[in-house]
């Protein structure tokens, strides 16, 4: 008969040598959560611990992280009883591979102020719920930081993704370095490094990322330099590096000199807008942008904080840089995009990357890339437009790693030199001029309302069907202008309608709000 060995269980009065340490890792696909859990298990076993690692898979990327769960206890000869998944209020160390995963761990009750060391990378990956928001749907990072500080016994957070990328490794290596540097586990640095070395692949890069994160968690690394405050640009001529042919550089310097003549409060936004517009088209387009901006600056002043001019600088640039087939093709054939895709996919130098681009042009996009007269001729004849649409309006897959596919997109992107003569440009500029004139006409009577009219340009974005829906919302919001102008709260009403339109994809909330506006009396305060 075999003698039964009583199992080791965690309990409140257990000695340190008998205590079960409970650690959870939250990571999504591609972040190396499984590798990290294996490393932690290896480190524990190298130090005379018995460890168990399990995982509970999430749904898909950004709809649910996989939870890797490790329990460990010193090997005392008794068989430990380990759980298969974490429980609320019963986690000693929680590692989150990005900031919002830390927030979700707190919501699920895995982090407690009297017990849990919370280690999180401070970088962000937008969740699906954030991406589908028509406006700015990003959750507040500062709120997560504040909540994490209050909810945990100790909170360690810095950009571990950047540390990994800078060292050519995966974030799992820098997460392990942060864990080791935190001192939350009773193991030496050398044992962590030995576990990494045992993997045999990418050891040098992983050790470099581990070491950088270890020093940062210990507080021995030099803090990252703080970015310069963007509120004031001393000189546009000295901002950033610009290269190119001499004649174009002279043109850019002339435009940058005009930025320096603007009020200080406006310069930063104006310089950002100018860079975007010139990159989108050319130097002459940048000159047009500044000419339009000057109209708002002439009506503005320091008493209002130049709010009108700042809004004009931002939204004029976005309006001038509308998305069309030319823009999409141009961006997809830039060398910077190829480098970004290779970096994100993890393609090694010398390896072949096959890229398939998906296009589904409608007759409207086709006509928009034609000379204004020809495009209007087709659109004005529904039968001809329908005939062409049946032959154009279907999905296409273009391999940009092939010569033919790349050349086709490169040719379309090259049409931007003729963009000003095309139908889409004629339509967009007419719409821009009408919106801008409407805003500036309201400045003498209601400055705040004029600013809100400019801000309504936020509603227009996207390409193809998305652009059509966005412009419809824009038109519906401004349809309330005649009903609210002259009221003391007119600007506030336009702002409310715009925010509803940004949050409401179908537009039901906006329709209800417009009905409310229609019932307002002239003297009624909203």
UniProtKB/TrEMBL annotation:
Q: Which Gene3D superfamilies match?
A: Pyruvate-ferredoxin oxidoreductase, PFOR, domain III (3.40.920.10)
Q: Where is the signal peptide?
A: none
Which species is this record about?
Mesorhizobium ciceri
Q: Which NCBIfam families match?
A: PRK08312.1
Query: What Pfam family is a match for this entry?
Result: POR
Lineage, top-rank taxon, reads Bacteria
Ranges for domain DUF6537 come to: 266-478
* Record-given protein name: Indolepyruvate oxidoreductase subunit beta family protein
Q: Pyruvate/ketoisovalerate oxidoreductase catalytic domain spans which residues?
A: 29-214
Keyword annotations: Oxidoreductase
Q: Which InterPro entries match?
A: DUF6537, IorB_Oxidoreductase, Pyrv/ketoisovalerate_OxRed_cat, Pyrv_flavodox_OxRed_cen
Give GO terms: molecular function aspect only: oxidoreductase activity, acting on the aldehyde or oxo group of donors
């Amino acid at each position: 008969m075999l003698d039964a060995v009583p199992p080791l269980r965690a309990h409140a009065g257990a000695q340190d040598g008998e205590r079960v340490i409970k650690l959870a890792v939250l990571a999504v696909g591609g972040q190396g959560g499984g590798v990290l859990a294996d490393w932690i298990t290896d480190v524990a076993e190298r130090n005379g611990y018995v460890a168990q690692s399990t995982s509970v898979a999430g749904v898909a990327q950004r709809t649910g992280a996989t939870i890797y769960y490790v329990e460990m206890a010193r090997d005392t000869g008794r068989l430990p009883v380990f759980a298969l998944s974490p429980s609320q209020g019963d986690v000693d160390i929680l590692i989150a591979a990005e900031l919002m995963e830390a927030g979700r761990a707190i919501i699920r009750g895995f982090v407690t102020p009297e017990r849990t060391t919370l280690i999180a990378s401070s970088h962000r990956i937008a969740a699906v719920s954030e991406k589908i928001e028509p406006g700015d749907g990003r959750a507040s990072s500062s709120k997560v930081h504040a909540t994490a500080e209050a909810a945990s016994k100790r909170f360690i957070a810095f950009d571990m993704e950047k540390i990994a990328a800078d060292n050519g490794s995966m974030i799992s290596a820098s997460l392990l370095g942060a864990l080791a540097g935190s001192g939350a586990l009773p193991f030496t640095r050398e044992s962590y490094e030995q576990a990494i070395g045992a993997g045999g692949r990418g050891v040098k890069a992983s050790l470099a990322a581990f070491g950088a994160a270890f020093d940062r968690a210990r507080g021995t690394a030099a803090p990252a330099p703080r970015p310069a405050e963007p509120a004031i640009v001393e000189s546009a001529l000295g901002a950033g590096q610009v290269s190119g042919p001499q004649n174009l550089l002279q043109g850019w310097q002339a435009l940058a000199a005009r930025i320096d003549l603007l009020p200080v409060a406006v310069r930063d936004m104006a310089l950002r807008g100018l860079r975007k517009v010139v990159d989108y088209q050319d130097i002459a387009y940048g000159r047009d942008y500044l000419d339009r901006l000057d109209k708002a600056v002439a009506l503005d002043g320091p008493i209002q904080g130049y709010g009108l001019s700042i809004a004009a600088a931002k939204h004029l640039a976005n309006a001038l840089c509308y998305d069309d087939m030319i823009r999409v093709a141009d961006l997809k054939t830039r060398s910077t995009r190829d480098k970004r895709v290779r970096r994100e996919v993890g393609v090694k130098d010398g390896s072949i990357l096959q890229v398939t681009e998906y296009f589904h042009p409608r007759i409207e996009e086709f006509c928009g890339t034609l000379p204004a007269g020809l495009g209007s001729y087709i659109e004005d004849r529904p039968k001809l437009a329908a005939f062409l649409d049946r032959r154009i309006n279907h999905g296409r897959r273009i391999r940009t790693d092939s010569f033919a596919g790349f050349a086709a997109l490169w040719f379309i992107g090259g049409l931007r030199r003729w963009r000003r003569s095309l139908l889409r440009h004629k339509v967009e500029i007419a719409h821009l001029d009408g919106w801008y004139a409407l805003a500036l006409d309201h400045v003498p009577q209601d400055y705040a309302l004029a600013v809100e009219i400019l801000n309504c340009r936020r509603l227009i974005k996207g390409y193809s069907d998305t652009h059509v829906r966005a412009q419809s919302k824009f038109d519906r919001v401004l349809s309330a202008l005649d009903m609210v102008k002259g009221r003391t709260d007119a600007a506030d009403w336009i702002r409310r309608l715009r925010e509803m339109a940004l949050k409401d994809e179908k537009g039901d909330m906006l329709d209800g709000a417009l009905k409310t506006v229609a019932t307002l009396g002239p003297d009624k305060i909203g």
